[in-house]
Design a protein that fits this description.
- With about 210 residues, the chain is of the alpha+beta class.
- Among the domains are: about 60-90 and about 155-165, no CATH class; about 95-150, no CATH class.
- Helix content is about 50%, strand content about 10%.
- It contains 6 helices and 5 strands.
- A 3-stranded antiparallel sheet has the order 1-5-2.
């Protein structure tokens, strides 16, 4: 309220918003260790390569499948808006073999989980099952193969790129580039001004010493 220079009386739902925030903060304080799916996705435009995005028109939604391209209104004979580009897929696998994974999965599915009430493994939520199976697989790999992950595997794949311009992402990148150029320009101007001031001060000191 202070930063926006507004009065509390001018906000009609101030109490409701405050109570909602307080409830979430109290819940976070009471249960600091949490595992939840994220609700906010951050677009880091600085991590994108601006030249590649602007040249190839590669905003995130531009990678399309055959189903999406077939349902598009611009899908006509002789279209030039679809471009196939190669990319490198990189994956990491566990050192355990397929038979080892199958054996571990069958073994853990027949076990009971100890907690407040003992219950079969298959009665747990899918997320808990995956976490327990992953943990068991890591321990097995470390014990049997002396390492958890195998060497990374790379594979050349091809994806369809929709060349129809999405102005939101392209304008975002251009705005970022413009701001970066202006910042560098101001930094150069400040550096030159500082250098001129230093040279003038040095020259003035020399003049004073000569006059004395």
């Amino acid at each position: 309220m202070r930063t926006s220079k507004m009065d509390v009386e001018s906000v009609s739902n101030y109490v409701e918003v405050k109570n909602a925030i307080m409830e979430k903060l109290i819940a976070l304080r009471d249960e600091p260790t949490r595992e939840e799916s994220p609700l906010i996705y951050h677009l880091d435009a600085a991590a994108m390569y601006p030249n590649i995005i602007l040249t190839n028109r590669l905003p995130p939604p531009s990678i399309v499948t055959d189903e999406v391209c077939t349902a598009c209104d611009f899908n006509r004979p002789g279209k030039t808006c679809l471009r196939n580009l190669e990319w490198i897929w990189r994956g990491e696998t566990y050192t355990a073999k397929r038979s080892d994974c199958y054996h571990i999965k069958r073994q853990i599915e027949s076990e009971f989980v100890d907690g407040l009430t003992s219950k079969p493994f298959l009665d747990l939520p899918k997320v808990d099952q995956q976490l327990r199976l992953k943990d068991r697989l890591k321990k097995y790999c470390q014990k049997a193969y002396k390492r958890v992950l195998d060497k990374p595997v790379t594979e050349t794949r091809e994806a369809g790129i929709c060349m129809r311009k999405n102005p939101f992402y392209v304008d975002t990148v251009r705005s970022m580039e413009k701001g970066s150029c202006q910042k560098q320009k101001h930094m150069r101007e400040c550096a030159l001004t500082t250098l001129d001031s230093w040279v003038a001060a040095t020259h003035l000191d020399k003049m004073k010493k000569i006059s004395e």
